[in-house]
Design a protein that fits this description.
The chain is 21% helix and 17% strand. The protein is built from four helices and two strands, in the order H-E-E-H-H-H. The chain is globular.
């Protein structure tokens, strides 16, 4: 079934860059992040009921998920009027069609209106929460809510 683009953050990659990359890989769409709908953080602590020590710290892990609000990437008026841009680079900034040819990243993508959501086979009910939330003017937090940057560490 269909789902919102998403995936893992690569080591050394900021969540914002991962969201942009995953959207392009899975849906074939260039986007601009506009805000944050939701941040989730879950700490998993592994307990082994068959062990005397019970807690197995080496198996603990954390999971953080950021649900971004984004819009398709369109050329800015300044970019459209810039005579130094060649035709090929300008056309690559226009909103593209959703991916229709399956590959390693996904089977495809589609645009749907909020009314059409119930007609699409979804992998989860979350799009049924997030899309109406945005449509009804629900809170979208500023990107600055989450400090997100990539830092190079020199050794």
């Amino acid at each position: 079934g269909f789902w919102l683009p998403g995936g893992r953050v690569d080591p050394g990659e900021a969540t914002e860059n991962a969201a942009i990359r995953e959207c392009e890989e899975e849906a074939g769409i260039k986007i601009r992040l506009k805000g944050i709908i939701k941040i989730e953080f879950v700490a998993y602590k592994h307990e082994n009921v068959k062990s005397v020590a019970r807690h197995e710290a080496k198996r603990d892990y954390n999971r953080m998920r950021v649900i971004y609000y984004a819009e398709p990437y369109e050329a800015d008026k300044e970019e459209e009027n810039d005579e130094n841009k060649n035709e090929e680079s300008a056309s690559s900034k226009i909103v593209s069609m959703a991916k229709s040819i399956p590959d390693y990243e996904s089977m495809g993508a589609c645009w749907v209106t909020p009314e059409e959501l119930h007609d699409v086979k979804l992998r989860s009910t979350e799009p049924l929460q997030f899309i109406p939330h945005v449509e009804k003017g629900g809170t979208i937090h500023p990107l600055g809510l989450l400090l997100c940057k990539e830092v190079i560490s020199y050794v």
